Amino acid sequence: MSSRDNAAAFAVAHLAVACDGAILGVVLAVCAATSWFKYLTASSALDKIRAVPSACISDLRSLIAASDGEGEDEGKLVVIRGQVQPKSTIETAWPPSKNNSALSSQGSGHRAVILQQTQTCIYNEWRGIFGWSFDLHALFAKSWREQRLSSIRSVPFILVEGGQWPKSGYVHISLDGSTHPLPLATVYHQLRPIQPTPYSICQAIFGNGIPVALLDEEKILAVGKEITAVGMCKLQNGALEMKSCSDLPYFLSNMTKDEIEADLAANSKILFWSGVVLGAFSVGVLGFTVFRNWRRWKEWRRRRQIHTLNRESNVESTADAESGDASDGDVPEGQLCVVCLMRRKRSAFVPCGHLVCCSQCAIYVLHGLSPKCPVCRQAISSSIRIYDS
């Protein structure tokens, strides 16, 4: 690890423990709340999927017809499993158009209904002959380390029951508005070296982020692949159509219904205990922060009271010295303060009215935890200085 990385890690650690760990406690609390929110979402999705029985594609029409009065606009939540086929296979009335035919992978030649092509730049990072750690290319254009070109193409496709097509029914799969991950498989993976250019030589001399190769990848949803679909199904223009449900984390998946339930249950358990652990740590850190600052506030208040007491004592001592009340052997024994036995009684307590303390001792008694008169032990609220005429 470089010195810059060490400095960054030290700065992050210093920020985390700032204010007696208050920032760390707040961050842990936010993480705990996020874990609990994700746990509630995952457990809700698990309950919904568990409540939905696995249905055959051929039985979907009867299920939709039985639930026409319940959520007709949104459709019925179903879980089905079938094989992927392009929509052109059911269009027998006219020759299938080019847009509806299956896609072909350029690298492998596989037929697919979804084709994702990605090109990623691979770079060799070093500090150059001057040891500079920044990338000059990142100052003027997009950094090579983040440069990734990706394109995705798809054609309309359907799900059919495996082994029974074309005798069985089918359901159209609509990807409109879906943000769920797709069950794509990598069929092409090639690394192509990049020839050095004068610009690369300049990068090698002055900075890092030197492009050395391009990684080409192709991922497809192959024709004939068996997948599971979890979503809202309804009749659209006389045909069955299935769309994704935003409340569920799955739409199209390689896993079966039982595997999806097991995966959601495991994620829910992890999120639950993560929320518990992070919540306990955040409560502990924030509790320590509150206790530590409360102790500091009490110490600051005590010091301020002592400072005020000392200032008042100095004023009273000066006044007593000027009036001759200091212990110089001239104070009669019956008029000495009952606390210090050195100075003349000058302060009477309220509300009891006993004149038993000097001004300084009266201040100390009043600033105690539970101020009481030294004679009658009655609670006192203040004191009054008594002056001789």
From TrEMBL:
One GO process term, biological-process aspect: protein ubiquitination
PROSITE patterns registered for this protein in UniProt: PROKAR_LIPOPROTEIN, ZF_RING_2
Reaction equation(s) it catalyzes: S-ubiquitinyl-[E2 ubiquitin-conjugating enzyme]-L-cysteine + [acceptor protein]-L-lysine = [E2 ubiquitin-conjugating enzyme]-L-cysteine + N(6)-ubiquitinyl-[acceptor protein]-L-lysine
Location(s), subcellular: Membrane
Pfam families: GIDE (PF12483), zf-C3HC4_3 (PF13920)
A GO MF label: ubiquitin protein ligase activity
EC numbers for this chain: 2.3.2.27
Keyword Transmembrane helix: yes
Coiled-coil portions: none
Main location (coarse class): membrane
Domain of life: Eukaryota
Cellular component, GO annotation: membrane
Membrane topology of the entry: Multi-pass membrane protein
TM region(s), chain numbering: 270-294
Domain RING-type intervals: 337-377
InterPro entries attached to this UniProt entry: MUL1-like, SPL2-like, Znf_RING, Znf_RING/FYVE/PHD
Keywords for this protein: Membrane, Metal-binding, Transferase, Transmembrane, Transmembrane helix, Ubl conjugation pathway, Zinc, Zinc-finger
Protein name as it appears in the record: RING-type E3 ubiquitin transferase
Species: Vanilla planifolia
Lineage: Eukaryota, Viridiplantae, Streptophyta, Embryophyta, Tracheophyta
